[in-house]
Design a protein that fits this description.
- With 357 residues, this protein is an alpha+beta fold.
- It is 27% helix and 25% strand.
- Strands 1, 2, 3, 12, 13, 14, 15, 16 and 17 form a 9-stranded mixed beta sheet that branches.
- The protein is globular and about 65 Å long.
- 48% of the residues are buried.
């Protein structure tokens, strides 16, 4: 199971998938899943698979986009000014490679840069530069050269990072583990469920534009109309120097994370207990999380219609929203196993119990 997972994650993380430009990731989902998908009008992709019962309608959902940038303007000297798509910290950006994707689908390498230290004034060197002080250098001589290369205002940009196995053979580094681990779990769990019986209708959803305001999840949920939802994510790991050890809830190698709440959504308590009980019964390593900050597509999903019991399941990743994040593949495999087990057990009786108040 490890080898196919690694191959899939390499394919997913190296794909270009900035918010609003998720086509490459969507194509991977479509190539890996069977059946005829339907789409919402933001580009989210939805598959419906019948089980032994029509209800409950159980949605597993992952957002396909990653944090990136969009070309804002082009200087006369041929440098690209940009604005962020999603949350970035200036400390992580300078001298990093990026890929600029043109409207024709060509990808060009660029370097994020800014005024060099020897040109900065007193006190400026110790400050974190704002993104509007940075630019992307694609090696163009001037604005006309940029145009001839096919780059234009509105083109999207993502980090240029190869998928890499680290010294610890279970750990891998890549861009976009937030949220390609979620998309990977979506694909592999759905593939596994095609081979077994499940007492529900399964809805597999790849949503757009989470990183810029949880947009695709809203429209895709209207199409899917679920009774229960499981959001698949790549949440931040916190097993790092400077963190409070007693409060670590996302450690690499400790299992899949079950998020009970964050400022954007409080998970249905009975559903959370169902997930925990399933993890224990299946002997799946897991860790619980109550987050002080952040948010996921659960924000929109759990408020659909008159309410949808929703829970977030994630693979902890160090250094998300940077060029290089790190996961432990065993946490990912635990997530695939847990999602598969949940769908096999989530019948009409269980779903009804989640909303029995």
């Amino acid at each position: 199971m490890k080898r196919p997972a690694v191959a899939l994650l390499k394919c997913l993380t190296e794909a270009h998938g900035a918010p609003g430009d998720e086509g490459m990731v969507r194509d991977i989902v479509a190539a890996k899943l069977t059946g005829t998908p339907i789409f919402d009008r933001t580009g989210s992709i939805i598959y419906e698979y019948s089980g032994s019962r029509k209800t409950p309608r159980v949605m597993i959902e992952a957002h396909m986009d990653e944090v990136g940038f969009v070309v804002h303007s082009i200087t006369r000297e041929g440098f690209l000014r940009f604005v962020p798509l999603g949350g970035w910290w200036g400390h992580t950006l300078l001298a990093q490679r990026v890929r600029v994707r043109t409207s024709a689908g060509q990808e060009l390498t660029g370097i994020i840069a800014a005024k060099p230290p020897h040109l900065l004034g007193p006190g400026e060197r110790d400050k974190v530069l704002k993104l509007d002080q940075m630019y992307i250098d694609i090696g163009a001589a001037n604005r006309d050269t940029v145009a001839k290369l096919g780059v234009a205002i509105g083109d999207t940009v993502v980090p240029d990072t190869p998928f890499t196995r680290l010294a610890h053979t279970n750990c891998y580094a890549a861009k976009a583990f937030d949220n390609r681990v979620g998309v990977g779990m979506l694909i592999q769990a759905t593939q596994a469920l095609q081979k077994v019986k499940h007492p529900n209708t399964l809805l597999a959803v790849g949503a757009t534009q989470e990183e810029v305001g949880i947009r695709g999840a809203r429209t895709a949920t209207r199409v899917a109309d679920p009774d229960v939802a499981i959001v698949l994510e790549g949440p931040p790991a916190d097993d790092l120097p400077g963190s409070i050890a007693d409060e670590n809830q996302g450690a690499l190698g400790k299992g899949v994370q079950i998020r009970m709440m964050d400022p954007s959504a409080i998970s249905n308590r009975r559903l959370v207990n169902f997930v925990i009980q399933t993890a224990v019964a299946e002997k799946i390593p897991h860790q619980l999380a109550v987050r002080r900050s952040g948010g996921t597509d659960a924000k929109e999903i759990h408020l659909h219609g008159i309410g949808v019991p929703t829970v977030v399941i994630g693979v902890p990743a160090r250094y998300i929203h940077t060029h290089n994040s790190i996961i432990d593949i065993n946490d990912y495999l635990a997530g695939v196993k847990l999602v598969t087990a949940l769908i096999r057990k989530l019948d009409k009786k269980a779903a009804a119990n989640f909303v029995k108040f």
